[in-house]
Amino acid sequence: MTTAAxxxxxxxxxxxxxxxxxxxxxxxxxxxxxxxxxxxxLGEHFVLSREGKGALAVFLWAGTWWVFEVVPIGIxxxxxxxxxxxxxxxxxxxxxxxxxxxxxDFMDPSVLFIFGSIVIGLVxxxxxxxxxxxxxxxxxxxxxxxxIYLGVFVVTAFLTHFMAHTAVAATIYPLLLAIxxxxxxxxxxxxxxxxxxxxxxxxAGAGSIITLLGxxxxxxxxxxxxxxxxxxxxxxKFAFYNxxxxxxxxxxxxxxxxxxxxxxxxxxxxxxxxxxxxxxxxGPITRNEVIAASVILGVIVFMSLQSFIPALQGFHKSxxxxxxxxxxxxxxxxxxxxxxxxxxxxxxxxxxxxSIGFCLWETGAAKWLAVNWLALFKEANWxxxxxxxxxxxxxxxxxxxxxxxxxxxLPVALVIAPxxxxxxxxxxxxxxACAGMPFLLLVGAAPNAIAxxxxxxTSGEFFKYGILASVLLMVVLALFVAVxxxxxxxxxxxxxxx
Length: 498
Known about the structure:
- The protein has 498 residues and is mainly alpha-helical.
- Helix content is 69%, strand content 1%.
- A hairpin with a 5-residue loop joins strand 1 (38-39) and strand 2 (45-46).
- Helix 4 packs parallel to helix 17.
- The protein is globular and about 70 Å long.
- The N and C termini lie far apart (78 Å).
């Protein structure tokens, strides 16, 4: 084969198309004439400023490159900061352009929380806790790959009842690596590998909606609800309504992955015996395992108690979690080589996601989108209105942090709802269900990005199957809104004249 033929074959026209599509969308939005104001049902106008339109332009460019991976996802995140700075999109508290604002978000406490969670995963792997836990679980679930799927999904969802889903994903990830090593395919990409890692990410989201301990979005939403509706939702009422839809999605996702990512092998022959032998070879639990487990358990307990003890709420969760990172190096469980093995591509991914999220929020672009979208349904049937809110949250939570998606959409929705005879309670729970399950983009949630580090799937594959999983979520949510939640006693519509 000639050199010219090799070069022709090697050239990736698809990559070039999407490489150019990103800046083309940016230019189309950024340089187009001003767009009309968004108007809410009370007649208030929301102007889309030059900065807001610029934020949407950056949003489209980054989203295109993230989905199609024309450059490493962390580099796309750096582009977000670069564009905000060059286009003068961010201002300081006095309203003056501030070149530092965009990159400050790259070290937001939420990004450091993800860093700390990933370090916990490294510790689980290095000390051997991961393999020990994997062997114990495989002894229970056996050799059938379908049961291994189920065992992993149930353990992941269960842990999110007590700890943040980011920390759960970081804990489970190395366990999945240990399980996949026993599948016998080395580092080869397989359906089983895709199902394990994508499934973990999806199920971590589904489990995280069940209690207030699974993610910060729940407390934020309840704060808005109390302020606007004047009513409290207790910890147990929150779990009561979310438990069936959260666990329902866990088991439906198991079926989903058995259909679309059915393992190449029905069983892993001899797995029980091999696991029993490997477990025995590990010997008794080591000093480092005990220390690591104690440090991690102590921080998890502390963060869990923060939801119940007001005196502990002043300690930021990121700082609390980073106590573990510092402790691991002080106790010499980790060293410099371990620090250099941190997947910075994933850290940068979330740094960029935080930056564009804050940019959309601060410039008013996100509010403009929310008002425009919900205003389309101000004359709609109550059921259609609720599902439209849920759909908007579902889309937004895939591009920006779910806390921001809730902060943008929920207040607007709660204001419009009474005009349509819709109870605020169902708006709250429908929004939270969708905010917790961003199945489309890696930036939608930390577990998505952590799973991506496995190398078993591309961001395009994640997006493609995420569309189907999102449709499944919307169908399940529709069933809960129309039938199940009302049967459980949830207020869905307001009484006549109420």
